[in-house]
Design goal:
The complex is a heterotrimer of chains A (158), B (138) and C (86).
Chain A: H1 2-18, H2 23-40, H3 48-79, E1 88-93, H4 99-111, E2 115-120, E3 126-131, H5 137-157
Antiparallel strand pairs in A: 1-3, 2-3
Helix pairs in contact in A: 1-2, 3-5, 4-5
Chain B: H1 2-27, H2 31-57, H3 60-91, E1 101-102
Chain C: H1 2-26, H2 30-54, H3 60-85
Classes of the chains: A mainly alpha (158), B mainly alpha (138), C mainly alpha (86).
């Protein structure tokens, strides 16, 4: 986290020194500072930041692709004359303890069409998900746990 | 010209998604399925339309505001869906008769509005089932 | 060409608006109507943004942004009172 703050600080310093605070120049400063920090911390212990950024980028692409797929499926369902639905409310037990991670996870699940996170149990141990189409609850649970929970956990707890 | 093409395609896809959200809202058989359709197709559509405006105006002030709005939409849509879904469940809105499984059944405590991981038996006064019929055909 | 596309976009939004409005009238439960109102305000936001681009008026965008903020508050308030009622 402190590496991230240092990165932001260096980006601001870059903008101040070049006298141009436009977002483009700030972004360029950020990328530049990222590269410099990467070189500087190569032998030190604070490497987790550089492992995390590629993970976040990978997650964004994974999520965007999932949203796209699910939206196409949703469009087909809504437009077909005979809607093929097999809805269910499924309880998915959570391994994650981190509250921010749980909130992030439930938000992401709601944003992929077809699944809607309805509620989190008061003891934060289970998530209740409504889904449009379920064939096998165990498979659905495994998909949520290995696809989303694992990735969110990697980002939050790294 | 290239800019117009990008703006128009973003608008078209966004408007189509919002149209799908409306159609889904109309055609889906129960509240939870309807929310599935609106909370994401709606916000994704609105996000794409706003992105179209960002590409069209190409102004940093507008870009910053529009991007903030998109982030806000994506943060709030799930919260709103969760709050309405929860309130509707307490209010006794039934699930569609084709629903194959309802794990929420009996998990809410009526007196405290807490959600337990262990189900309360349906004959218990604390269980919502004592008050409303969850899945009926209408 | 551009004009035809704008008409198509507005037609799509209008169709969505009509569908949401039918749901608003039909219900059958109060939460259904709340969801319908939520979608209607998102559609209105879409209309405003499309008009802002159509007439090259960036100032209209602020209305859309405020609308997005207020809609969320309205929905949360609705949900809060709905749960209190139950």
């Amino acid at each position: 986290m402190s590496v991230f703050l240092l990165n932001v600080l260096l980006a601001i310093a870059w903008s101040a020194l070049t006298g141009d605070f436009s977002p483009l120049n700030l972004g360029f400063g950020f990328v530049l500072a990222y590269g410099v920090l990467w070189l500087l911390t190569r032998k030190s212990s604070s490497r987790s930041y550089f492992l995390q950024i590629p993970r976040v980028i990978e997650f964004v692409f994974f999520f965007a692709w999932d949203v796209f797929k699910a939206n196409v499926r949703m469009a087909i369902t809504i437009l077909s004359p005979q809607m093929r639905l097999r809805p269910a409310v499924v309880m998915v037990p959570l391994d994650m303890k981190n509250e921010i991670g749980i909130i992030l996870l439930s938000n992401l699940i709601t944003l992929t069409p077809g699944t809607l996170s309805l509620d989190i149990s008061s003891d934060r141990k289970a998530l209740f998900i409504h889904t449009l189409w379920v064939e096998d609850e165990e498979k659905f649970r495994a998909e949520i746990k290995s696809g989303y929970e694992r990735r969110v956990k990697e980002i939050i707890e790294a | 010209m290239a800019r117009e093409i990008v703006v128009m395609s973003l608008f078209l896809v966004g408007a189509f998604l919002m149209f799908l959200a409306g159609l889904g809202l109309l055609r889906m058989p129960d509240l939870f399925l309807r929310m599935s359709a609106t909370s994401k197709a709606g916000s994704l559509g609105a996000g794409l339309v706003l992105l179209g405006a960002v590409v069209f105006f190409q102004d940093w002030g507008i870009t910053a505001r529009a991007l903030a709005t998109i982030v806000f939409l994506f943060l709030t849509a799930p919260v709103a869906a969760h709050m309405i879904g929860r309130a509707a469940y307490f209010d006794g809105v039934p699930l569609w008769k084709g629903t194959v499984r309802d794990d929420l059944r009996g998990h809410y405590k009526l007196s405290t509005h807490r959600l337990e991981t262990q189900a309360t038996p349906p004959d218990d006064k604390e269980s919502i089932d004592a008050v409303v019929q969850r899945i009926d055909d209408h | 060409m551009i004009n035809t596309l704008f008409i198509l976009i507005l037609a799509l939004l209008t169709a969505g608006f009509i569908a949401a409005f039918i749901r608003l009238v039909r219900g059958p439960y109060l939460p259904d109507r709340v969801v319908a109102l939520d979608l209607i305000s998102i559609l209105v936001m879409g209309f405003i943004v499309v008009y802002a681009v159509r007439f090259n008026q960036a100032a209209y965008l602020d209305v859309a942004i405020i609308l997005a903020l207020i809609t969320f508050l309205g929905t949360v308030a609705f949900a809060y009172y709905l749960e209190r009622r139950a």
